Amino acid sequence: MAKAKPHLNIVFVGHVDHGKSTTVGRLLFDAGTIDEQTMRKLKEKAEELGKGGFEFAFVMDSLKEERERGVTIDLSHKKFSTQKYDYTIIDAPGHKDFIKNMITGASQADAAVLVVGSEGIQAQTKEHAFLCKTLGVGQIIVACNKQDLNKYDQAKFEATKKAAQDLIKSVGYKVENVQVVPIASYPGENVVKSLGNMKWYTGPTLLQALDNLSVPQKPTNLALRLPIQDVYNITGIGVVPVGKIETGILKIGQKVVFMPGPAGKGVTGEVKTVEMHHEQMQEAEPGDNVGFNVRGVEKKDIKRGDVVGPADNPPTVAVEFTANMIVLNHPTVVTVGYTPVFHIHTAQVACQITEIVKKINPATGETLADHPDFIKNGDAAVVKIKPMQPLVIEKVKEFPPLGRFAVRDSGNTVAAGMCIDLVKK
Predict the structure, then answer these.
(1) CATH class of 7-211
(2) CA angle at residue 415 from 215 to 418, to 5 degrees?
(3) Domain 226-310 has CATH 2.40.30.10
(4) Model-wide pTM > 0.85
(5) Above 70 in pLDDT, residue 137?
(6) Which of 15, 103, 153, 311 is most buried, by the most CB atoms less than 10 A from its CB?
(7) Is-same-fold flag (7-211; 318-424)?
(8) In Å, how far from its chain's centre is CA 274?
């Protein structure tokens, strides 16, 4: 079997009409992931709906409809490969999907493409840049789209580039590490290939810019943290928990503990087998989705949302934690006493906001107000939070994937944040 190429999760973000979906569609089409026939069908469908020119956007939007109908989508639609990397694209249409995708589950983005339209930086562009930084997206590329509308004018691109660099810097990224690429997604200029409309530009295409990204180090040096997705009972084997390793290494023979377990004290056992894609393995590492059998653990003792760690370095159960949180989409205001559901790794637990310590500037961290009565959409704050039942959460500095969370209420993502401190049980 050929060695798998390194894999990167990319999220496309930016203001609503700046052409994210068209950019993604064009990228997938020109990179050969979508064939002519599919594209022709989408084009016909677009014209039929009076949306000629939207066919690339339909590549992603046809998936969006499937999502709304609750059909599981075969992710291969959104995967593409270059000679260097295998990519998974997380399209981020609006807030809700964006945040859910960025924080929950496997789609922790390694890098973001911030798409800016010909009209330059808008409010939402800023917000998405802040979010990328706050949610720990380490690398960012700025794609200045719709250069065709500016008649491929270099001066106009340079002005947008300067504004984008100022924004990126204010949020806390190092400007020298951020590639700014002019593109025109609809005609397909400089996305995968150069069509020669911008002779003045000598930098990479968007695809080359993606290949210039670096693969984040796998956190194998940290202790094992493996949030449980499901637990199966398999005849002849026994109890088989399944989940994705976030940090550390899972080995056969290892003594592990599931936290919090039924009483918040954990359940211990010994790893007997580790399996990935129906193959037995001696050990598995971060990013691997594994099923494993543990001696001494019963199905009733463990569930989704528990986290596995080494018996001598158990995952942290917090009675209270302090977080940096951004309110994204709350119908009114957030006050002390508010008790929504927090989504952290695979756990979903109601937690109560017990104190709003201070309102902060999300870019600089400076205090804007001490102990405000409430926070509303767009505000960032330091808050104290009390889980209503035992919950594993770690400080984001110690175990990044187990420190981030999304806050959901009646079907909406209302806030997002990260744990900066905690009180252990």
Answers:
(1) alpha beta
(2) 50
(3) yes
(4) no
(5) yes
(6) 103
(7) no
(8) 27
Per residue in 36-68, is it b (16+ CB within 10 Å) or e — as a string? eebbeebbeebeeeeeeebbbbbbbbbbbeeee
DSSP run (H or E) holding 101: helix 95-103
pLDDT tens, position by position, 362-413: 666 789 999 999 999 878 899 999 999 999 999 988 998 899 888 888 877 7
- Other Cβ atoms within 10 Å of 121 Cβ, number: 20
Output the six-digit token pair for 352.
């109560």
- Residue 416: what pLDDT? 82
> What are the structure tokens assigned to 349, written together?
């637990």
For the chain, what are the domain ranges? 7-211, 226-310, 318-424
Measured CA to CA, the distance from residue 187 to residue 244 in angstroms comes to: 40
Q: What topology does CATH give the domain 318-424?
A: Elongation Factor Tu (Ef-tu); domain 3 (2.40.30)
Q: Which H or E run includes 291?
A: strand 289-295
Q: In the predicted model, what is the mean pLDDT of residues 113-131?
A: 79
In sequence order, what DSSP letters do the residues of 183-248 get, joined into one string?
A: -BTTTTBTTTB--SS-TT--S--HHHHHHTS-PPPP-TTSPPBEEEEEEEEETTTEEEEEEE--BS
C-alpha 402: how far from its chain's center? 13
Per-residue pLDDT tens digits for 282-298: 999 988 888 999 998 98
